[in-house]
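Moderator note: this is an archived Q&A kept for reference. The question asked for a predicted structure of one protein chain; the sequence and the answer are reproduced below.
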Amino acid sequence: MRLLEIYLENFRNIERERIALRDGVNIFYGDNAQGKTNIIESVWLFSSLKSFRGAKDSDFVKKGENNARISCVFEKGGREISSEIRFFPEKRKEIYKNGIKIKTAEMMGQVNTVLFYPEHLSLIKSGPEGRRRFVDTAICQVKPQFYQVLNEYAKVLTQRNFLLRSEREDMIETLDAWDKKLARLGAVVTHTRKTYVEKLFSFAKKTVDDISGGKEKISEVYSSFGEKDISSVEKEEKTLYEKLKDSIDEDIRLKFTSEGSHRDDFTVYINGETAKIYGSQGQQRSIVMALKLAEADICNEYNEEYPVMLFDDVFSELDHMRKAYITERIKDKQVIVTTCEKIDFFENAGYFNISGGKVIN
C-alpha cells in the first residue's frame, strides 16, 4: 500500500499540517519535543487505533481546543481510500472511511504499517505483556477479525475475575458458564498467536543468519496453557476448559484467573541459549530487527502489498552494520523516519524539518 497524504489538525502540538508523502523514504528531522513523533503516531493510529506511547484519546487534543482530527489518503489494492479519526476531550473517538462513519473494528486492517521505535529494542528482555501486545497488534493487521476476538476474550476474563471476587453462593455453578466461553475464545486466541509466531520466526531466522554471517541461529518456544506445538483449536479449547476446572480452588483463593491466553508468552533462543539472559545487547537488537522485518514480510504475504514502515528515532540506537542492513532491506519500500539529525544514508529521500509542531521547509 502507499500512503499519499496525511493531515493533522489540533493534534497534540500540531495546529494544522497537510503533508504529501513520497513513495520512498520520508525523513522528519528536528530537535526533541518539536512534533516528529506526533506525526509517526498519527499514522500508526490508523493501523492500531491506540497510541504506542500509552496516551488516552483525549491526550491527542491540543490544549484549549474542542477536538482533534487526523486524516489520510492511501492507495491499496489499486483503490484510493480516505480515512479520518476525530478525537474529543470528553467522548469517544469517531472514525470515518470515505466520509462514512464506521465502527472501530471496521478500521482494523485498512491501513497497514509496521512500527519500530526504541521501546521495541527491549522486546526480548521485557515482560510477557509487551510480547503479547507486539504479536496481537501484528496479527490484527493481517487478520482484522482477531481484534474482535481479543476484545471478547478480555470482556469474558473481566467477568470471570469479577465473579471470583464476588463470593456469591452460586459461584461454582456460574463459573462454569464463563469457563466455557473463556475456553472457546482462549483457544482461538492462543492458536492464532502460536501460528503467527511460528511464521514470524520462519522469516526472522534468515535475517539473523544474514546479519551474523551464519554464526547465529535463533529459535522460539511458545508457552501457554496447552502444548508447546500447534494443535487444533478444538484441542486447545478442551485443554483450557480442563485447566480452568483444575485451578478453580486456587483461582477462588487468589480472586483472579490463573490460566488462559492472558498468560501466553514466547521465549527466544540464540544458538540454543536463552537470548534474554545470554544474548548480548547487539544480538537482542538483531533479533528484534529481524522480527519487525518479518512482520512486514508476513503483511506483504497476506495482503500482496508491503506495509508502510515507521521508524521512530531508532537509527541512533543501531550500530553501522545494522543500519546498513536495515537500510538495504527497506530501500524500495515506503518509509517514514524520525530523527534528530538530518541523516543522509538513504538515497532519494524526502526531508521535512519539524519545529514547534510545524513543517518549516
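Archived answer notes: The longest strand covers residues 2-11.
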